[in-house]
Write a structure and sequence with these properties.
Number of helices: 4
Radius of gyration: 19 Å
Strand order of the largest sheet: 1-2-3-4
Distance between the termini: 38 Å
Order of helices and strands: HEEEEHHEEH
Strand content: 25-35%
Bound molecules: zinc ion
Largest sheet: 4 strands, antiparallel
Oligomer: single chain
């Protein structure tokens, strides 16, 4: 099985090849490319997008505006300005982009933790407190959670 670094490397090289994602001038701007973290929990996706600022990483999520309406939004987690890439040669650029992307994947993974009761690993959103998922909080702690 390929490591996450190998998967990210293949994926980044494809994007650079297809859309010149390493180039401030030639890259396709404001197009979100999605990378799925395969085999990890619910297989979350992170995006990579080229903007006028540089390359940016993040993921899609929701914010609650009012009591019950979730609005889709994008959360940015990493940024790499074009200015940083400018002075690099092609190999250095590739390496830098791959390293930044691995960090973006790692920070997404850190949002997941294991429940002390059911031992399932899941996203923080599914937790009642640091160690207990919402379902187990109801079952084991007798806490009734209003969603
Ligand atoms: Zn649990």
């Amino acid at each position: 099985m390929k490591s996450i670094k190998e998967k990210v490397t293949d994926w980044v090289l494809d994007r650079i090849h297809d859309t010149r994602l390493d180039s401030e001038k030639l890259s396709l701007k404001n197009h979100f490319f999605y990378f799925k973290i395969e085999g990890f929990c619910d297989e979350p996706e992170i995006f990579l997008v080229a903007t006028t600022f540089g390359l940016e990483w993040g993921y899609n999520t929701f914010i609650w505006d009012g009591p019950s309406i979730p609005l889709p939004t994008k959360k940015l987690t990493r940024k790499l300005p074009w200015g940083t890439l400018k002075s690099m040669n092609r190999e250095q650029k590739k390496e830098k982009i791959i390293n930044e992307m691995v960090k973006a994947v790692t920070s997404k993974k850190r949002e997941y933790r294991r429940c002390q009761y059911c031992n399932k690993k899941m996203h923080l959103n599914g937790f009642y407190d640091n160690k207990t998922c919402s379902a187990c909080a109801e079952k084991h702690l007798g806490i009734y959670i209003v969603y």
